[in-house]
């Protein structure tokens, strides 16, 4: 099977030029001008952009949390991702209490085999316990399975939160095993106290989700994680940075040359804490963690993305239906399952309001949504770029296509959209994963199971490009 994409403007993190791309057997085999080679399928990309498929390093499909389970599995979640131009996601394989790491991995492999994803999927291992089931020896071997990042939560006390000893031990293992440590950085102990106090005072509305998690609790934990990682000699990736207080310690660490990386998520760039005050429990839709912040943080986040203090934009897609799941916390904000949807709209929002409004360049956009996540999580250069030998994960992007984002048209199972009614300009026209067309206009044309599990290289190492057929 070969596909020739002709005359598009090819944009990577490094380059921007007009040319043709030939994909054969899933791999890019030729790039050039006016290629006269035969192909099974020719796509005219004149006037369109040709981008590397986006990589979303932060999603939670079919994950048990807060007494319920996220409403997308690896079928609906990957379909939704594909429609937004994302061709690889990395989800969190969570260690359940008492389980070993091999058991956790087996359970997640079973999930993706059952779901038959339409895009490629990788895992991070979510460490919740190093005393009962998880051992340091097993943890050290996880990267051998192509799972080369360890995620730990410094919040959600009584659930997935770990103490500093567990965090530090995992960092020491990572320093040896070549894994990248990822942290959810919030001071879970202080937040637990603030939540209990608010509830005791009868403060039960969704807005108290934000008021009991002040930005400084994120800033404190971010700084603590950075310092501990430095002592352990491990690289660190701080997920979902939402505010100035967390940006500052990352900026300091990076200025000192420490391997500290940070991502933000689409929602923090566009939604502020006033969303939680929407009446009739509509505010419950915006209960994700960290919470939506005071609006002035959005400018700090855009600036951090353009100056390189923050290195990636993910979605933290963690969808719970409003009706029946979010409403579990109608009378108590602490019982609202924490998480928001968004895997389909990351590129729509960043292109429309980041690139078109001049906040980030087109190449920086590609870097933030594709190249950097691929690099940091051991997928580059097989993914995250358009080069001979790379996977033919390609998005033909129509820069003029107009779209109104809505739960009535998105492809996730979730019953609301964080950006409901937002008009965007720029959307995928054709999406390919390893050379197979998976989305064409408004239609899903992927075969179920088109996506595969991807084994990733260790932090700082490259995933070898595939041999090009002669
Ligand atoms: Zn998350």
Task: Describe this structure as you would to a colleague.
- The structure is a single chain.
- The protein is α/β, with parallel strands linked by helices.
- Helix content is 28%, strand content 23%.
- The protein is built from 12 helices and 19 strands.
- It has helices spanning 76-83, 101-115, 136-141, 164-177, 188-200, 207-211, 215-232, 244-255, 266-270, 296-307, 346-355, 362-376; strands spanning 2-11, 16-24, 27-32, 41-44, 49-52, 54-59, 64-65, 68-69, 86-94, 120-126, 149-153, 180-184, 236-238, 260-265, 312-314, 394-404, 423-433, 436-440, 443-444.
- The strands form 3 sheets. Strands 1, 2, 3, 4, 5, 16, 17, 18 and 19 form a 9-stranded mixed β-sheet that branches. Strands 6-9-10-11-12-13-14-15 form an 8-stranded parallel β-sheet.
- Strand 11 (149-153), helix 4 and strand 12 form a beta-alpha-beta unit.
- The radius of gyration is 21 Å and the shape is globular.
- It starts with a strand and ends in a 26-residue tail after the last strand.
- The structure holds zinc ion.
- Zinc ion is lined by residues 58, 60, 316, 318.
């Amino acid at each position: 099977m070969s596909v020739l994409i002709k005359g598009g403007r090819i944009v990577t993190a490094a380059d921007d030029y007009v040319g043709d791309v030939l994909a054969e057997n899933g791999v890019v085999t030729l790039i050039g001008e006016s290629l006269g080679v035969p192909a099974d399928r020719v796509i005219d990309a004149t006037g369109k952009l040709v981008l590397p498929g986006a990589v979303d390093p932060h999603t939670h499909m079919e994950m048990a949390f807060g007494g319920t389970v996220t409403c997308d599995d690896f079928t609906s979640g990957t379909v939704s991702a594909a429609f937004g131009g994302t061709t690889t996601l990395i989800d969190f394989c969570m260690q359940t209490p008492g389980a070993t790491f091999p058991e956790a991995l087996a359970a997640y492999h079973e999930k993706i085999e059952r779901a038959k994803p339409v895009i490629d999927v990788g895992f991070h291992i979510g460490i919740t316990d190093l005393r009962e089931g998880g051992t340091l020896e097993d943890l050290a071997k996880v990267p051998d399975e192509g799972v080369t990042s360890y995620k730990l939560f410094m919040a959600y006390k009584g659930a997935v939160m770990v103490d500093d000893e567990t965090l530090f031990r995992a960092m020491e293992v990572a320093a040896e095993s070549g894994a990248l440590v990822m942290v959810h950085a919030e001071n879970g102990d202080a937040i637990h106290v603030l939540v209990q106090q608010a509830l005791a005072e009868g403060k039960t509305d969704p807005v108290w989700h934000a008021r009991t998690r002040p930005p400084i609790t994120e800033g404190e934990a971010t700084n603590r994680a950075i310092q501990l990682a430095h002592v352990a000699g491990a690289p660190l990736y701080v997920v979902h940075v939402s505010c100035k207080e967390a940006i500052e310690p990352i900026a300091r660490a990076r200025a000192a040359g420490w391997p500290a990386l940070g991502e933000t998520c689409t929602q923090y760039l566009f939604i502020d804490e006033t969303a939680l005050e929407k009446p009739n429990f509509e505010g419950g839709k915006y209960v994700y963690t960290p919470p939506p912040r005071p609006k002035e943080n959005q400018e700090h986040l855009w600036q951090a993305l353009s100056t390189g203090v923050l290195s990636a934009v993910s979605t933290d897609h963690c969808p719970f239906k409003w009706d029946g799941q979010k409403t579990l916390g109608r009378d108590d904000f602490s019982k609202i399952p924490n998480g928001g949807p968004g895997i389909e709209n990351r590129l729509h929002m960043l292109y429309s309001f980041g690139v078109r409004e001049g906040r980030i360049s087109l190449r920086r956009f590609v870097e933030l949504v594709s190249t950097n996540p691929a690099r940091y999580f051991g997928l580059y250069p097989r993914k995250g770029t358009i080069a001979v030998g790379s996977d033919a994960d390609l998005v033909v992007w129509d820069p003029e296509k107009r779209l109104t984002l809505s739960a009535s048209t998105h492809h996730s199972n979730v019953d609301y959209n964080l950006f409901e009614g937002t008009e965007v300009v720029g959307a995928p026209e054709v999406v390919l994963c390893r050379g197979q067309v998976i989305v064409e206009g408004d239609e899903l044309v992927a075969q179920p199971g088109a996506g595969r599990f991807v084994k990733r290289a260790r932090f700082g190492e490259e995933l070898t490009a595939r041999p090009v057929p002669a």
